[in-house]
Amino acid sequence: MAARLLFIFAVLYSLLITILSLIQLGKISLGDFNPTDKMMHLGAYFGLGFIWFVYYIFKWQEDQFKNKHFFNITILIILFGMLIEVLQGTITSYRQPDWADILANSIGVLLALGFCLGFLKFFKRLKHKINLFL
Known about the structure:
mainly alpha; 0% strand
């Protein structure tokens, strides 16, 4: 049940990133704090990586769990970010592809990977407790 909810959230978050990456947006400001475009990319892709990694942790049984799958998920999310950048340059007239955005996206995913691997035991215990509860 928890894995199903995480999957739905991960898909919706992925769709949100796709839509926000392809529509025309104005400048975003949060009071005195003005996040740069690259910080927003890094944060968005940290969130994207985080939710997909946690979904993977909750989805697979212990005997099916392999660290190489984290690598595969990382590569797929980085490729997704590259695809979005290509689409910005080909299907929109108001957005331009940017290598620095791809770099910020990739760093965000790698930070999420490091965070999830660093707290892997915690997530596995949480999964076990949630499964006992459900």
